[in-house]
Specification:
It is a single chain. Helices cover 40% and strands 27% of the residues. It has helices at 18-28, 55-72, 83-92, 109-121, 160-174, 206-214, 217-228, 234-243, 252-258, 266-275, 288-298, 326-339, 357-362, 373-378, 391-394, 399-404; strands at 3-13, 32-41, 44-54, 75-81, 97-104, 125-131, 147-154, 177-182, 192-195, 279-287, 302-311, 314-320, 347-351, 365-369, 381-383. Strands 12-11-10-9-13-14-15 form a seven-stranded mixed β-sheet. It has a four-stranded antiparallel β-sheet with strand order 2-3-1-4. The chain has a four-stranded antiparallel β-sheet with strand order 6-7-5-8, covered by helices on one side. Helix 4 (109-121) packs antiparallel against helix 5 (160-174). The radius of gyration is 27 Å and the shape is elongated.
């Protein structure tokens, strides 16, 4: 008596009890399940089971499975697997694994085709595909729709750098975001996330808002834009902009804080992150007053930003303490991780400007959010098509899971 390995494939209308009914037959003959996988797409079942049994039982098992499939009105196919094929399959399980996430306001067949072609050309095999967003609305006018699909792939890319470059070019030309991550234990064990504030958590640069009230809006906006593009050193640009605010009534800051334009997706993102136990920090080249406002609003754990000097209820045009520039952000990022006893591989950083690159590059997962081209090119990952809650999809969260948690 010798063992046989058989792969069965089942397809048909899904209904309760199909898997259980087939498994009962295998159990009756004391078969060993070597692999099993199931997917349900719009009530259509696709089920695969690889099992091992003795050659004297294999014929009876297949006969019973055929009868049961007929009763259940499903199609079933059998494929014998040789020991050599099985051994080769086992060896492949040790190959590198990656997660490729694509998302946008909507996803087209062309986008899927282009991404999967790159995957194939790089010698990778797709093990699984799942949609992370909820049902995609047919009404394209629905407010802020989003679509996200995650590919689990296995193998070693022919040229990893070339692959990532192709993804960047594709995301730009077809208007979507593509994330390419190693599928390691750290991906689902992130514990610390640090955000830039201006143009990341809020849809404005607060210093520009202050400048408008001080009557120097055009001057400050010009310096801000040049700094964000990396054309002017951040520290020098910061000093020049703050100096232009001299004489502004400090009460203006409260008015601005109360009307901050919060970035799409921030409320949802913060609720989820706090619920699942993340430590959250703001590391900003902006101002502490506004960071603390967001801290109170969302229960953020750390805020490090710049302190404006105030005398006689007016801004002096000076600042207090050290400037939080790009280098300082990276230092604070490492310090917080150390204080929280978090491995740097378990961290996330999100920002939009050149001065965010040091912390983006330090983080286990660095994400450029609606960033300038220079920042997108240098960051590990980027989000440009949807709100900041797109970060959740990079972590593998599914809308169906989040919607089940009413306290979110």
């Amino acid at each position: 008596m010798k063992d046989e390995i058989i792969l069965i494939g089942i397809a048909g209308d899904d209904r309760p009890g199909v898997t259980s009914s087939l498994a009962e037959i295998l159990a009756r003959y004391d078969a060993t399940i070597l692999d099993i996988g199931q997917a349900d797409i719009h009530q259509t079942l696709s089920l695969g089971i690889m099992f091992k049994t003795s050659d004297e039982n294999s014929g009876d098992i297949m006969k019973d499975l055929l009868f049961r499939a007929y009763e259940l009105d499903i199609a079933i196919k059998f494929k014998p697997i040789s020991r050599e094929e099985y051994t080769e399959w086992v060896k492949k399980q040790g190959k590198n694994r990656y997660i490729i996430t694509i998302m946008g306001r909507k996803l087209s067949a062309q986008q899927i085709a282009k991404v999967t072609k790159i995957i194939t050309n790089q010698g990778l095999n797709i093990d699984g595909i799942q949609r992370l967003t909820g049902r995609i609305p047919l009404d394209e006018n629905e407010q802020s729709p989003k679509a996200c699909v995650e590919f689990s792939v296995r193998g070693t890319p022919v040229n990893k750098e070339e692959m990532q470059s192709e993804f960047v070019n594709l995301s730009t030309s077809l208007g979507m975001d593509i994330s390419f991550q190693e599928d390691n234990m750290y991906r689902r064990m992130r514990r610390l996330i640090c955000f830039d504030m201006d143009s990341t958590l809020i849809e404005t640069e607060v210093i520009d808002e202050l400048a408008e009230r001080a009557g120097v809006g055009a001057q400050v906006r010009g310096i801000t834009e040049a700094a964000m593009k990396g054309e002017i050193d951040f520290t020098e640009s910061f000093k020049r902009r703050v100096a232009l605010l001299k004489g502004l009534d400090a009460s203006v800051m409260h008015e601005i804080a109360e009307n901050l334009p919060i970035t799409e997706g921030v409320d949802r993102l913060m609720r989820v992150l706090k619920t699942v136990g993340f430590k959250i920090a703001i590391l900003s080249g902006g101002f502490t007053y506004f960071g603390n406002f967001l801290k109170q609003k969302y229960g953020i754990d750390y805020v490090y930003a710049n302190e404006l000097e105030i005398k006689d209820e007016k801004l002096t045009g000076n600042y207090l303490g050290d400037i939080v520039d790009g280098k300082r952000k990276a230092e604070l990022f490492r310090l917080i991780a150390q204080v929280e006893n978090v491995d740097i591989a378990q961290t996330i950083a999100v920002g939009d400007g050149v001065n965010d690159l040091p912390m983006l590059n330090v983080a286990g997962l660095g994400i450029a959010f609606h960033a300038k081209p220079k920042v997108k090119e240098s960051a590990q990952q980027s989000i440009s098509t949807i709100g900041i809650d797109g970060v959740l999809y990079f972590l593998g969260f599914k809308d169906s899971y989040l919607e089940d948690k009413k306290n979110y």
